[in-house]
Amino acid sequence: MPDIFVDGDACPVKDEVLRVAERHGITVHLVGNSWLRAGGARPLVRRVVVGEGFDAADDWIAEHVDPGDIAVTADIPLAARCLVKGAQVIGHTGQPFTKAGIGNALAMRELMAHLRDTGEVLGGGPAFSTRDRSRFLQALENAVQAARRTGG
Question: Tens digits of per-residue pLDDT, 141-151?
Fold first, then answer.
């Protein structure tokens, strides 16, 4: 059975992850720069507090994720690192990151950063919605089922 790794500091779907993980008996690693309260005292929840360094949580996840595990993150470079290690990766809106699409996602991230730096684009993307939460739950359930089928 896979483990689930959550890039937790700004993750809006921690409760959903915990609900799915509990139903399937999967260990969840909530990783952040500070203590994450989500989940209460659950035996399958591992809280990992990393240093304050830039990308410390990302580095910890990328180092510990294994083939067949599931990573939950909106961080595209972290998603790429997890995919290289053979993990499934799901964004907070339920959009899976794939090996076929990660190059385009990285390129779009760089383009948008450049446009924000030059002032041509202001602000971020759309607000997180109830539909995103529902889509995420379905994507995570699909990822768990896929891991079970492949023995991950």
Answer: 999 999 888 87
